[in-house]
Amino acid sequence: MTRIAIIGAGFGGVAVAAELLRAGFDDIVLLEKADRAGGVWRDNTYPGCACDVPAPLYSYSRALNPDWSRRYPPHDEILAYLQRCADVWGVTPRVRFGAEVASASWSGGGWEIVLKDHEIVRADVLIPAVGQLSRPSIPALPGAETFAGVAVHTAHWTPDIPVAGNRVAVVGTGASAIQLVPAIAGTAAHVTVFQRTAPWTLPKPDRRYGRLRKAAYRRMPSLMLLSRAATWGLTLVPGAALTGNRVVNALVRGYSSSQRRWQVRDPELRAKVTPDEPMGCKRVLFTNAWLPTMARPDVDLVTEKIVAVTPDGVRTADGADHPCDVLIYGTGFAATEFLVPIRVTGRDGVVLADEWRDGAHAYLGLAVPGFPNMFLVYGPNTNTGNTSVIYFHEAQARWITQAVRRVAAGDDLEVRPEVAAAYDTEIQSRLAGSVWTACQSWYRTAAGRVVANWPGKATEYRRRTATLNRSDFLPGSLPLE
Q1: 198, 173 Cβ separation under 8 angstroms
Q2: What is the per-residue pLDDT across 215-240, written as a single tens digit (0 to 9) for each?
Q3: Which of 79, 92, 258, 415 could link 367 by a cystine bridge, Cβ 3.0 to 4.6 Å?
Q4: Which interval of the chain is the signal sequence (predicted)?
């Protein structure tokens, strides 16, 4: 029986486990360091946390949900949905909670996985599904350790963070801050937002889903397919804007500019919230509340560079001190450091971190030369800038199931170095002309290599992963087909 170890029980890990169970594989263990499934939706509980992809798309294709409360549901609904899917599909009983992986090594005949408590788990197939947004990134600000108040990253939020009636400073204006700040403004005594670069925003076409709609979805599930298809169609517009259609890009930029004109009357503030980087080089954010919140009298937007944290607050380059009682880092994640801090060692003692020293890479985002029978979920260059990453997870799950069938038949799968190199050259060549090279973001390494995003349409990725090509791999114990 083929032993399969999956690291992580978020959307990707659950997708792969469910697909393998459907294919008849039963010896599966999901190693999850937390006490429950959920990934980012378990870890991120800050006020205002919600999905920025419409619910009809942010769903498994075989588990469309008639009970979403709105088009962009809050995190607790998404977490409950994921956990329900894991229960229904029989994944949950196969999760080992509190099992944090320290290292994994290829022994020549399989994988030896060492947990933090030194227990060893052995498997024939290793499937890391830890995601790209699992390790919070906190800037090394001088004096941060001297701050006398409460300091927290949005991914480490707890219900007892003392926002009400206190002065709050928020560092960052990315996706988390865009949601958090409007949710706490008015509850906090005052909010100061520190912005390095202004984000591109678009109106968020959110709406509540009423009882009649939910009842219709339950009675006629095919209606959900229509909603999903229509939502998919809408994502093609920002997708075209990001991938080079100049006409669509100009239209979307104009729509964003109109939003600033409608919602920000003060010319000085409007100048502060106007981006000076190309649209799409960082994630475009959907919001109806961010710009009006910036105009509130109890909210300040500071664009001066932070030079230090003091015991009482934050000091900026102009010498101004900004007092606060709570310091919140909305500074994102170490997305380019795939699989860190897990030490993965492949054939001939090759360490994956060394292989990826100049930036992570993997054939189809799934396989790395020198690491037999290891298949990544949400690996390098499989992030999407405009649609649901769950679509990519499901494509990866189907491909991985094909790979596991080969392993179960007695084969070992290790991608050919020349195939992986040619693929990486193609992907990086396509990315070189993309908007994602136009500024520094979590999509790129410090050296400038884009390691997060897929350069084409989601349908292209699905097509290219539809069938495992055995000739792309080194000869194993079974003949090439």
Answers
A1: yes
A2: 999 999 999 999 999 888 877 777 77
A3: 415
A4: none
